[in-house]
Structure formats: structure tokens, C-alpha cells
Amino acid sequence: MTRARRKALLQSEAVQGLSLISPTFLYAFVLLAVPILVVIAHSFWTQHYLTIDRTFTLENYRIALTEPMYRDLLWRSLYISIMVSLFTVVLAYPIAYYISFHGGQRKGLWLFLITIPFWTSYLLRVMAWKVILGYNGVLNSGLMGLGITDHPTTALLYNSSAVIITLTHAWAAFAILPIFVSLEKVDRTLVEAAKDLGDGPLRSFLRVTLPLSMPGVISALLIVMIPTVGDYVTPKLVGGKDGVMIANAIQAQFGKAANWPLGAALSVTTMVIVSAMAGAAVLILRRAAKLAR
Amino acid sequence: MRGLRRFMPGGSWLGAYALVYVVFLYLPVIFLPIFSVNTAATPKFPLSGFTWKWYEQLPHTPALLDAAWNSLIVGVSASVLATTFGILAARAITRYRFPGRRPINGLIMAPLVLPEIIIAISMLLVMLQLGLSLSLFTVVLGHILICIPYSMTVLTSGFEGFDRSLEEASADLGESAFGTFRRVTLPMVTPAIISSLLVSFTISLDEFMIAFFLTGTEATLPIYIWGQLRFAAKLPGVLALGTLLLVASFVMMTLAEILRRRAANRANTEGGLYA
User: Which of B93, B119, B145 comes nearest A21 by C-beta?
Assistant: First the structure.
């Protein structure tokens, strides 16, 4: 095949591929990329009742970053999302490891078992936790029935711990899958080699398996951290006053408070900060993985 | 080697941990069906007695029936359209190499990792700006967007390893392009497509945030449930409805998984040497 013909063929393949994917791409572009740009634009504008004033201003960002209420909500949301992603990853790693290294013939069944609850309605799972942690709930009545306490405690529901527990449960499956995938890629002969060369099971795990599975750990962290920072349902149902998160404030700006530009600035700020934190986490973990080797 | 691995220290306590973990995953969800057949109006132990009364009330609640109907319309429209978009994109990704493949794929899959509130408010803002009035139609638009990544995941696993030589053979043997599509391509990808429809429908049926922001006055089932949660007295009915939704999701996802596996196996083995 001559070079020119090969080029022509490649080009036609490129054209075919692009035209085939273009409807889906356009859909995502028009309904996701453009709207996000519109949100970013709004964050630099101001609203007077029903009209939007399109002169550039950083006022919304000043409010978002300095107003104590929003600052506290932002920090709490970041704190909660970091705790949730750490817990899910730490709890999920042994399971992913177990399925990958000891799952044998039943790997598929294990993965299926673990992902199924995740496919049920998120709202219902949060509701289940409300039922469990409530004042008259499962845990309180159960503890009293067992004679461990004699009166129900309010410590269980309506605080940020309740939010963390609920979110950790809700995102469990999301953390297991990427870790499992990266563990599957770990070359088993390397683990054997480390053992043959005298490393104990823990040492070979820390020096071979863990660093090699780090990409999975990193993507699990990100896949949990970024969406949970903007969670709305969980703080609303089980968070109470002490567990309110930034999404609740954003929603208020698009609802009752009707200040779109401020809501937009809060959204952009949240996304920028969580992306920066996620980026920092990636760098730190990559470093750690390199040092371990 | 397998024997060695089985006796490796750590295997047994890891197994025990895995079991505890699965219990942790399922336990909260299992309380919904348990308390939905309990006679007491508040969900607490000890259980007071068995009843179907909370379920019997469901068909006599007009608002609930409306919500169920709305959910059905939204779910069917969103799953069909998301799967159509998914088929095109998955086929392009698995079969062709083209410039910009990664960023394009990245944008299409982005709803998976973005906070739902960001997706919801950006779409809301644009729709309000365009003067679109919020309705089930806007909910469908939103659900298509978030269903496409799931549909893509299912479909690419079904299309991957799809043996192109089978289509070529069919064309060489005199089938028309349409005939090849209908008699060779379609039967191989049908399980994956049905699986994608089921997954998308389930996502749409259970989805709350996008629907909450983008709907006007019409409620879908999760929005109906959200509204009922304010009233403590309505909780048993909500638990009963929730249980039905759980069962529906469970059945559809199990079916989808069986079909997806069949599709993946078919694409990989039937095109093989021993087909």
C-alpha cells in the first residue's frame, strides 16, 4: 500500500468514526459543556431581581470565599468528602484484594453481589439510614432491646458523622471497582518473585502489590471525592443543622433565594477547590507509591 | 500455585472481612422491606406484626399513580434515546480510530464523575435562559445525559472483540449491507442493547437530583417519595413503595447483567476459532 493510499484510508476511517460519534458528542456538548460554561459566565455577573447585569465582577466570589456561612459550608463539604473517600477506599481495598487474589472462579459473582445494592435508588438507601439512625429508629430501639442503653440517643442522626456513614455506604461499590481492576493488572509473577527473594507477605504487599495498584486507589479516591462534595440528598435527610453541605446552599440560590450568580460562583468555587484537592491527593499518592518501591 | 495461594496466610480472615462487608452493604437496604410489612407506623424493634396493609393502600393513592406513570414515560424515553446515542458512540469508539477520541469520550463520560448538583444547576440555568418551561421533557433531556455513560459502558463491553471478519464474510457471501446488519450484526449485539436499555431505565427510574431540579409540577417516583418523607405518618407507605422500587431495580439489573455477560461472551467466543 502506498503512503498516500494509507493516508486516505486512515482519513476515511477518521471521518467515519467522527461522524458516528458526533450526535452523542454534540448532545453532551450542548447539554453539558455549554451549560457549564454558562454557569461560569453567570458567576461573574450580578442579578437585580429578575434581570442579569452582565458587567464583569468578582463580588460573587468574594461572598463565596469570605462570607462565614459559605466558607464554613465549603470547608465542611470538603472535610466530609475527604473523610468519605478515605473511608470507602480503606474499607474497599481488602475486598477488592480478596476478590482479585482469592476470588477464584467466583470473581464475577462477588463483583455482582457487591455492585447490586449500588444500583438501587440512592434516595432509598439514604432513607434506609434515616430509618436506622433515627431517634425512634432501628439502632436505638435495637440497643435498648438488647439492654445496652435505657433511653434513645439523639447522637446518631442529624450531624456530620451520620452524613459520613451514609455516604461511605452509598459509594462503597464505586471504590471497589477501580481498585479491583488495577489489582487484576498486577503481574502475579512479580509478587512471587518478591517472595522468592525473601520478602514476607506484608513486605511484598507493601512493595509490590500496593504500589502497582495505586492507579486504582487514586481513581477510586477521585471517583468518590468529587461527586460527594456536591451531595444534596444525604445532608438534607440525615445531616440536620450540623451536617448541611454546600449543595444545599447552592440549591437555595437557585430556588428560594433566587441569586443565580451567587449560586453559580458557589458551584464553580466548590469544583475548583475539590479539583485542586484531588490533584494534590494524586500527586502525594504517586510520590508515596514511588518511594515505596 | 492455586493451592499455595489458598493456604497463604490472610486468605481466611480476608474472606471473613469480605462477608462482613457484604452484610454491611445489604443490611441497611434490607430494613426497608422488613419495616414495610410491619404493623407499627414507626420503624423500630421489636417488630409488632405482619401486614400487607401499607401495600394495599398504594394503588388507592392517585398522586402515586401519576408519579409512577410519569416515571414510566421518562424512563422509557430516556433509556431508548440514551441507548441510541450510546450505540452510535460505542460503535465509533470500539471500531474506529479517529482524532480527538479520548477528549470526546471524556466529555461523554463526564456525568459519571461530576457532582449531580453541578449537572442539575447548569442544565436548569440554560433551560431557564432559553425560556423552556420545566416539564417531564426537560427531565428526559437530563436523564439522557446521565444515562449515556452507563449505556456506553455496557455497550462497549458488548461491542469489544466484535469480530469484523464475520461482517466481511457475510458481505463476501452476497448479503446486502442491510442484510448483514440485520442477520449478522444485530443478533450479536442485541443482548448488549437490551442490557443498556434496562440499565438506563433503572438509572432513570431511581434518579432524584436531576429530576428534582428539572421538573415542573409533575413528579416522578423519587420526587413523590421525597415529598412524602416530610410526613412521619406516611413513612410505612413510602417504605412499601421503596421496597417495590428496590425489587424492580434488582430484577432489571440482574437481567441486564446476565445479558451483558452473554453479549461479551458471544462477541469473544463465537467469532473465535471454535465457533
Answer: B93
When divided into structural domains, chain B yields a total of 1
Read off the pLDDT band of A248 (50, 70, 90): very high
B33 exposure class (CB count in 10 Å sphere: 0-12, 13-18, 19+): middle
Residue A48 phi, psi (nearest 5): -115, 105
Upstream peptide bond of B236 is cis (omega within 30 degrees of 0):
no
Do the domain assignments include residue B262?
yes
End-to-end CA distance of chain B: 31
Residue pair A52/A38 in contact by the 8 Å Cβ criterion = no
On whether residue B230 sits in a domain, the answer given is yes
CA angle B117, B122, B125 (to 5 degrees): 120
CA–CA distance, A144 with A124 (Å, rounded to integer): 26
Domains and CATH numbers, chain A: 69-292 (1.10.3720.10)
**How far is the C-alpha of B193 from the C-alpha of B186, rounded, in Å?**
9
**Cβ contact (<8 Å) for A138 and B43?**
yes
pLDDT of B270 strictly over 50 = no
Residue B121 domain boundaries: 71-95+110-275
Decide if B26 and A117 are in contact by the 8 Å CB cutoff: yes
**DSSP helix/strand/coil, A146:** coil
Quickly list DSSP for A177-221: HHHHHHHHHS-HHHHHHHHHTT--HHHHIIIIIHHHTHHHHHHHH
CB pairs under 8 A between A and B: 246
Asked if A229's CB is within 8 angstroms of B44's CB, the reply is no
C-alpha cell at B230: 416530610
**A253-283: pLDDT as tens digits:** 988 778 899 999 999 999 999 999 888 888 8
DSSP helix, strand, coil percent of chain A (3-state; round to 5): 80, 0, 20
Is B129 or B163 the better-scoring residue by pLDDT? B129
Whether the predicted pLDDT of A164 surpasses 50: yes
Check which CATH number belongs to the domain holding B271 and give it. 1.10.3720.10
CB-based contact B113 A227, cutoff 8 Å:
yes
B interface mutation test: which of A31, A37, A183, A192 has the most B CBs within 10 A? A31
Is residue B213 one of the residues assigned to a domain? yes
A226 with B226: Cβ contact below 8 A: no
Pick the range with the lowest mean pLDDT from A144-158, B11-25, B146-160: A144-158
The C-alpha of B174 sits at a distance from chain A's nearest C-alpha, in angstroms, of: 23
pTM value? 0.88
What is the tens place of the pLDDT at every residue in B17-47?
988 998 888 888 888 898 889 888 877 777 8
Q: Which stretches does DSSP call E strand in chain A?
A: 46-48, 51-53
> B271 pLDDT band (50/70/90 cuts)?
very low
